[in-house]
Structure formats: structure tokens, C-alpha cells
Predict the 3D structure of the following.
Amino acid sequence: MTVEQDLTWPLRHAMRYFPDSEAVVDGDTRLTVREFGERVLRLSAGLRSLGVGPNTRVATLLANSHRYLELHYAIPGAGAIVVPLNSRLAVAEMEYILADAGVTHLVVDEAHAPFAEKLEPLVQRVVRAPDDYEALIAASEPEELPGPSSENDPVGIYYTGGTTGPAKGVVLSHRALIGESIALGLELNFNRDDRLLVVFPLFHLGAIAGIYVLVWMGSTLVFQPAVDPGEILRIIERERITATSIVPTVINALVNHPAAETTDVSSLRLVLHGAAPISATLCERAAQVFGCVLTQAYGMTEVAGAPTLLKDEQDLLDQRQSRSAGQPMVGYEIGVRRDDGSPCDVDEIGEVVLRGPSMLTEYWNKPEETARALRDGWYWSGDVGYQDEAGYLYLVDRAKDMIVTGGENVYSIEVENAIAEHPDVLEVAVFGIPDETWGERVHAIVVPHDGATPTESEIIAFCRQRIAGYKTPKSVEVRLEPLPKSGVGKTLKRDLRAPYWKGRDRFIG
Amino acid sequence: MTVEQDLTWPLRHAMRYFPDSEAVVDGDTRLTVREFGERVLRLSAGLRSLGVGPNTRVATLLANSHRYLELHYAIPGAGAIVVPLNSRLAVAEMEYILADAGVTHLVVDEAHAPFAEKLEPLVQRVVRAPDDYEALIAASEPEELPGPSSENDPVGIYYTGGTTGPAKGVVLSHRALIGESIALGLELNFNRDDRLLVVFPLFHLGAIAGIYVLVWMGSTLVFQPAVDPGEILRIIERERITATSIVPTVINALVNHPAAETTDVSSLRLVLHGAAPISATLCERAAQVFGCVLTQAYGMTEVAGAPTLLKDEQDLLDQRQSRSAGQPMVGYEIGVRRDDGSPCDVDEIGEVVLRGPSMLTEYWNKPEETARALRDGWYWSGDVGYQDEAGYLYLVDRAKDMIVTGGENVYSIEVENAIAEHPDVLEVAVFGIPDETWGERVHAIVVPHDGATPTESEIIAFCRQRIAGYKTPKSVEVRLEPLPKSGVGKTLKRDLRAPYWKGRDRFIG
């Protein structure tokens, strides 16, 4: 008889046993665990009074803030399902998600008010922060959270770009998110003295999944909504930040900021980064400026975050393993498989498979895609890589043909589909090329119909109307010869990409 | 779809990802994770060749050693169930356990050879360490562990003294032991740099449950079979021990040892103790000698170890909470209940109830006792206590009438039953009284039949034939007047005990 797992337990535990710890710092707002927890209880009661309950889908569209985290306890605490919206999506993409997930309630902040107006007709109810939101809290009692009926109930549906079509909703259970949280806590030794700076957007599952455990351990979360390097440095010094999770572009901005030399960052013990590779030069420089451990995380929404970590990157710079995505966390396993499903040998390239305590339950309403992704107890990631003798994982390509730019995942196929709608376009290939600021940037090669003469700026403008800005190519090259093809007629994107990545030691195309 | 939990995973993880870490130090034997793991795989295969498989019960009777730990992976790894025997039990008690659990295989070391001869007729097969044991390893291949068929399969049946009769077998699942391990790892921040000195006997569930996580994290386990203070100090210095779990009697012996002042114990970061209270004086002195954190654990076999911890005891000496058993670990909850099952108020005394990820599945073949212990999703401990406003738990008595002496639990009823068989005895009461060396010692008050004149030494000798030496009273008082009784005729043991505990601030009777 083992007790069922409920993601709201961490909060109840913290409220009972260390109510006076500082839970949240967000601008001028400072909340103890008790204050934060009571807001969650009231908010959850308030949402329930608006009809939110078991199986209701509630979308959130907010910048990072304590309210964001409150919602991510209050909604699952009501037994309901959270559907976070990436605020960088185009309205059409948000509309698709609201319809696909059957969202009935939307919580939105001031920064996203223009979206709210467009999305309002699709839902039964919009709760606007701060006004409606605070009114709901003020009008409600801090009632006990009903929580899920089983540990296998979903906490949320987290949308991720599709390889062959629109975004897919990844369903993750209470047990899965607790599994991910616990493993991170063990691996990174989070404890009550930690003060985590939250910069990475919380609508990314990896970001929110990583902070649940900190509430549990009694750590403090410091929110910083905008990515302003000078302000981040000031906060690290003022709030005695011990750990943060940021993308390499932000690391780069921090270490090159004029204030970096004079800021006291001695409280830092860990800089976690993921979503994009980091160059040896930047890693070395960051270790020097921050004087702390750098750790890379590799993962995906389907496994509730990062199943592998490359710890102490700064000590591996001259080793082969510095180019790897690390080793799995406790409780996770990684394998590499051939096309026939058999395991690859050491250093043999194949499809990366993963398993562990935090795997997706399913893709929402997509039984076929679920059956393809979950086979033999493993999640088949679509990423391509190999493992060395010590079990370090090296990624060489992404079967999903994904570009990671400024911390966001862009699926080439989606961009290609958008460009292909342009009447002048005969063929198109989209891929990532190296970029100092963004890690990778989206690049397109277009072959026009005979006689057509589309320009770079026309193609970019065309895309911008259809897909999110960060998905829109930053550069477009028009070629007149046909794209290179494989024997079966598939565009050899690897050949197109190779010249741009020559001499680079990571994610060689 | 969350992956099932299997306690052998930690070992497979360690073998794959840090095979060259030092796993075990045991006298002159030093084993890397790979060497240790391969021994486990071979041993498990060897045991399977002797008929050990799903649902087989295998008893272990060994002193602390790397072999002890190997067995506790190899047996569950074969899908079988381990039944650890407390080596201090009397032969009759061991016989009872073998029969009750239906044990077919017994593994025994040289130190326990005399027991083996007596127990051999009860089982199908005895494996003697080191000879049979090492032969089995040498003759077997390091095959993959089949493991359990489900996370709810038992790892073991752990016998614990009964309140009203013979010992009961506590059945704990793979998921439960993983739950306990993970919580301990999170709370105590165990990591790859840790080197744990294992002194506490591993046949205690709390001891073995606490070390699984260290294998997982890549820490090193240093075994020390005999409790020799001088040798323990030498090992701490030589092996750069970072953490250990010991009983207060051993802490006392260490801090008062002449070599304590000159031994380098600066590597220590944590001394964990449980099983018995520690005096403020000893705590203060230990913190000074060891220069590290002292943490107390409170728990029971039924919850797979210690659900509560009193952390940083040395900083609480002048506070009320220093007399508490601490707060629950992450994922655990504690409550105090009235006789009618309703929750007690703050500071109101009642029965301690617990729940969390590591609760017993059942008492082996005891559905009635199981139903009594597991109610409303809680484990009803039988211990009596109260909680303060901050959720610290204070124990005031044990409903099970238990004495903790030198780290062993003794149930008074069992000793009373043994003494009551003596023909001269009319009435008997057994309870614990304070003891400098043992924390508590077993004390008996005996009222003889009219005209009978039993002596202290007669009663002690009589007990020694029937129950384990540590359960036998260290002192017996013969009284001629009847024992004090409650209105319903129950002996008022609390009144008998009170004079001995006067002025003591812990576990007041």
C-alpha cells in the first residue's frame, strides 16, 4: 500500500513545516510559504467557483511571475488540467491549441491582453490578471485542495511542435511530474538554502517542472520576467542567488556585460543551461565569471523535462564528453536503437530512446502518435545520436528536424509548410545555422517556380503572418537549381546544412 | 505511462554510468561499482540455479559486510523475497520466523555457523559464506537481473516484535523502498562525494533502507562489522568518512574515547542517529568533537525506516523542539489522532499516524493486524505523542510498550510473557529505565506467589533460555505488594516507570 502521488503535496508540506520561509520574490512582492500557499488555496477555490473542476482544461497565458506558479498549483489542486500557452505563438496557433485541448477557461495577464481579446470567443471564461485574479483570491476562502483522484490523473497538457503537422499535446500525470522533480532534486542537491533565479519562460515544461521541487524543499524562487542582463546581474547580487537555469544566449549576454566584473556573484553554486549547445569558449568564460558549476540539461516535453545532465561541464572542456548531452539522472535510462529496434553498439548512431519515472501518458487525442512514441516501455524521441562506452549521449541530428533558437524549439517542417504556401515557391528546405546570439537561427533555402522571383523579405513577411516570429526564418536564400535528393527523393537536408556547420564540434548536421 | 519501480535499478544505473567509482570498502576488500555489481549479478544467477526465484523466501543471517549488501540486491534481483534475521535473536525466535515466512533458503556467515546447524533442518538449502557463497559467484555468469514483475512485489519481509504475541513480518514493496531511499537522499543531500560508514546492523530495515540510495548516487559504503570506538575513529580518519548512522551509545563511546581529540574527523558532515534519544549534553559534546551536523531519525519498520528527521539538532539545544522527533521528510505526512479517529489539536496527546511513499503492503499472513494498522490510508503506529504548531512531533509513550536499548527494540509484552512462565511469578511488569550506555535498559518488577522467593539472577537466567540476550532484563526487582492497577485492572506501568525518569526531558513515561 503505497500512497498515491499528488503534485500539490509539496506545497502542503511546505505550508505545514516551514511556513515562514521565503517562497517567492517577484519585484517588490515577497511572499512567505504561508502567504503563497494561502493565495494558491484561495485561487483554487475561486477557480472552482467559476466551474473549474476535475477534467476541466484551463489555459494560462502569462509572463513569469508568482501568479504563474500559483496557477500551476491551483489548477491541478482543483483536480483540473493546465494548458500553458507559449506567449510567442501566433494567435492562429493559440486558437488551434484551445480548440484541440477543449479549453474552457483562460487566465491571461496584462502583457497578453491583445491576445485575450482574440481568444475570448473560444472559451467560456477569461480571468484577467491582476484585476479578476486578485478579486477571485480576495473573495475566496483558503479551502483544502481537492487534488487529483489518482496519481495518474493529468497535471497538464503541454503542447510541443509536431514533426508532421500541428502541435501535439503531451499529457503528463501527477506521478510523472513528481518523478521528474525528485530526480532533479537528488541530482542537483537542492535544499532549503537555495535561492533560484527564474528567468527561463515557465510556459516551457522544463522550466516549471524544475521548480516544483524547490517549493517542496523550502527554497526561494526569485522571478525576473524580462531578460535584461544588467538587471539579472543586480538580482543575483541583491538576492544572493545560488542557482539559475538560463539559455546560452543569456549566459553570453551576462558574461559580456560591463557590470559582470564588478557584480558580486559569489553566492552562485550552479548555472544550469539547456535547450541549446554552449561553445567551449563561452563555457570557460562563464565558469570564470560565475565561479560555479555549469551543468547542461537535455530533454523534451514528453519526458517532463531533462532526463540527462552533463554535470560540471567546466571540468570537461578538453574531453570528448564535453560535446555530449551527459548521462541520465537517477531512475532514468537511455538507449540508442537501430531501425529494426535492436540496440546499437557503443558509438553506433541510431534513434535515442528514453525511459524513466516521468514519461508522458499520451499525446492528447492522438492514439496513433502515442503508439508510435511509446513502444516496449520506452519513449522513442526521434532524436539521432550515439552513446560512448561510459553511457554519455551524443546528439548528431534530430529526426524531428528541430532547430533550437534562443531557447525555443522550431520544427523545420512547420516553417517549410508555411513557406510552401507561397505561390512562387517550388521547393523549400529549412534548417538551423550557427548564430552567435541565438545559438542557432532559422534559415530557409527556396527554389522558385520557373519565372518566379520571390525575394527574401517577401518570404519572411509571408511567414510572419502565419507562424510565430521566432519560427520565421531570419535569412532566406533563393536558389535556381533543384535541391539535392536521396535515392527515394527525400531532400538531403544534411548536405544543405553541412557547409554552415563545418569546423563546429557540436550538433554537426 | 510511468515506468514501474525496481529496487535493482540503482545498481544497474551505477554500473552503467560510474562503474569505476569505489562502491564498497570492507576491511582489505575494495570494490568498484563494476566489481560489486558483477558479484551481485553472478550471485543472483547462482541463487537462481539453487531454485531461488519469484516468491521464494530467502533468509539472511550475517554480520555487516559487502556480502550482506550484495544479497540484498541479488535476492530481490532474482524476483525473490529477502527475510533478514536479527542475529541477536534466540534460536527459537529464528525458527519461528523461518516457519512463519516459509523460508526455503538460508544464507549464513561464519560468525553465525552455530545457528546454521540448528536452523538447517528447517530449510531446503543453506548457503555458507564465504565458501559456498564465493563458489556460487565463481561458478555463475553475470546475467541480467530478472527483477520483480511489478513495483508492488515485495523486496522483503522484515520481522518486528509484536505487541501482543510473536514477531510480525512487515512486507515492503520495491516501490516503498525506492520511496524511502529517494526521500532520504533528498533530505540529506547525499551525493557522489559521500563516504558513509556503516556501523548500524543491516538486519535493521532502517539501516539497509538508508543505504540503497547511496549506491544509486555513486557514494562509497565503508563497512565496519564490530562496534569498536577506537577502530571507528581510525576508519573515519583513514577513509575520509563524510556521514554515518550510529546509535547514541556509540556516539557516547566515540566522544569519550582518548583518541577522539587527536583523530582527524574533519571529513564528517553528518552524524545521523536514531533508535534512542540523545541527551543535550551528549549532543553538544558530539557536535563539538565531530564539528558537523547531528540529525535524529524517528521511524519504524512499517514505514521502511525513518519518516521524520530532526535536522541540525546541535542548533536546537536550548529550544523546545530539541526534545522532538522532528518533522516528516518530503512526501511524508504525520498526524496525531484521538481514540475516535478524529485529529488532535496542537499539543494534544494521541496516537501517531503516518503516511508516505514507503508504507508496508501488509503484515505477512496477518490480515487482521494489517487491517488494524492500515486505516483510512494511514499507518497507525501505536506510538503516543503530540505535535506542536510547527508540526514537530513529540513522543510521550509507545502504545506498543517498547524499550529501545542499544539500538534494538524490545517489546515489554514479550519479556513479560517469558517471565510469567516462571512458576514463582504471580505478576510482572517490564519497562525501560535510563541507562548511560544503552540509552534505556530492560527492567522488570516481579511479584512472586505467596511463599515463593525467586531471585534476580534466577529470573534473568530463566529469560535467557527463552528470548534474545538483549531482551533479557538487565535488572529485576522483587516486590511483595501487588502492582498498581487502573480501574479496569490494567497494570499502571506509567506509574511504575515514572520515578526512574524523573527530571529527564525525553520520552517521559
